[in-house]
Amino acid sequence: MATQVNPPRGMRDFLPVEKRVRDRVLRVIRAAYEHHGFEEIETPVVEDAARLHAGLGGDNEKLAFAVMRRGLEVDDLRAAAAPLELADLGLRFDLTVPLARFIATHRSSLPPVFRAIQIAPVWRAERPQRGRYRQFMQCDIDIAGEPGITAELELLAATGDALTRLGIPDAFIRINDRRILFAALDHAGIAPELHEAALITVDKLDKIGPAGVAAELAERGVDGERLLATLEAIRAGESTGAGGTLHGFDAAALEPVRELLAANAGIRLEFDPTLVRGMGYYTGPIFEIAHPDLPFSIGGGGRYDGMVGRFLGRELPAVGISLGFERLVDLVSLPEEEAGETVALLVDKEVEPTRAIAIKRDLVAAGQTVRMQRRTKNVTALLEQLAASGATHFAFVRPGDTAATLEVKPID
DSSP characters for 123-179? Predict the structure, then answer.
């Protein structure tokens, strides 16, 4: 029976040419964020299991990979009532929970308003499918310590700049506010204990449509048609300038979104009162990055004022936004970067290894990028392969050659 050599389901290998593209996109994103005053941090890939399952991550907590405690015995396995009793750590499922813990840990060393970049992989036990992986990269920027819309506007401006640099100027951001959603739920007469369940269903609107949402809400004992009608009335009222005229609706919930819509955010904003975002930790404005030619979002985020306080022991406002890197990297077509020469040394089999390495070392010391390969019979195929991997020049290395005597030629 053949040994399985594919990576685990939902995880991927990247060839050198693919890795170069990914790194180039990341460099563009990172540069945009740094120019807007954000600073990069790094956190461990694992966090305490109790922290990852503290009710901060919404449905993503169910997708967390657990790390079993060391030294478990058979009796421990038998005695456990639930699998999580056997785990003390877990792989991070996003970068927001680790950031909240990081800020609480290092608050005394951070400025009053801290602007963070996190670009790192996360893991979720998803059902793998096109565009959905079990290991994927997240590109987050967050601002902690600023309660006003200045923070949202900074995030939106940096995001718009990054997307423009990536060659995606047509992207726009759908915005809503959790307070609008809860005001709509109250207006529709939905009991507070059903609010979160109702929002989970509304979040499926783009997948199952209004009829499907209304039917699922009815199963939960919620008047779905009334709720959807309320949300559409809010949308219509804002688009006609008559927002807040809906009888019995708390129009004050609309003010933060109105402020954002009236400001120059550096990227087009579109109000969507049906936008939910699945994470239960959001407390204010929420965002979803969209593109007119794509049926899916390419990022999102929102304000989560209560999360850091869970770890810090006092309230600290925070808001963040994340680019969907795995979708962006397939969408982006950046111009090739100017690169220096990469010389491929095609070494005859008669050449002593010590001589070949000495030639390579001399060329590297002179500033060259060098790759070394044994010369094969089919030199044409070898050169084609080397060119595809980024080599620009080549030289045959024969017995007696030195770095000074090589005849370096371009790969045509």
Answer: E-----BTTB-SEEEEEEEEEES--SHHHHHHHHHHHHHHHHHTT-TT-EEEEEEHH
Which residue from 47, 59, 55 is spatially nearest to 98, judged by alpha carbons?
47
Pairing between β-strand 369-374 and β-strand 342-347 as defined by DSSP bridges: parallel
The encoded tokens of residue 94 equal 């996003």
pLDDT at residue 130 in the model: 73
Listed in sequence order, the residues at least 6 apart from 85 whose beta carbon sits closer than 8 Å to its beta carbon are none
Look at the block and give the residue holding tokens 């609010």: 195
Q: C-alpha angle 126/132/134, rounded to 5°? A: 45
Q: How far apart are CA 389 and CA 393, in angstroms?
A: 12
Q: Which residues, listed in sequence order, are joined to residue 176 by a DSSP beta bridge?
A: 286
The residue count of the chain comes to 412
- Compute the Cα dihedral for 81, 87, 93, 94 and give only its sign: positive
Count Cα neighbours of 12 within 13 Å in the Cβ-side half-sphere. 17
Query: Span 76-82, mean pLDDT?
Result: 63
pLDDT surpasses 90 at 296: no
Nearest Cα residue to 140 out of 321, 325, 329, 328: 321
Single out the residue of 43, 152, 158 nearest to residue 100, CA to CA.
43
Contact 112, 145 (CB under 8 A): yes
Cα 374 from Cα 396, distance rounded (Å) = 10
The packing angle between helices 178-187 and 224-239, to 10°, is 130
Q: Residue 239: is its pLDDT beyond 60?
A: no
- pLDDT score of 279: 66
For residues 1 and 3, give the distance between their C-alpha atoms in angstroms, rounded to a whole number.
7
**Predicted pLDDT at 106:** 95
- In the chain, what are the domains? 16-182+254-331 (3.30.930.10), 342-410 (no CATH)
- Per-residue pLDDT of 33-53, as tens digits, reads 999 999 999 999 999 888 888
3-class DSSP state for residue 92? coil
* Token pair in block for residue 243: 């927002």
| Structure tokens that stand for 123 in this block | 């893991």
Burial class of residue 340 (count of CB atoms within 10 Å of its CB; 0-12, 13-18, 19+) = exposed
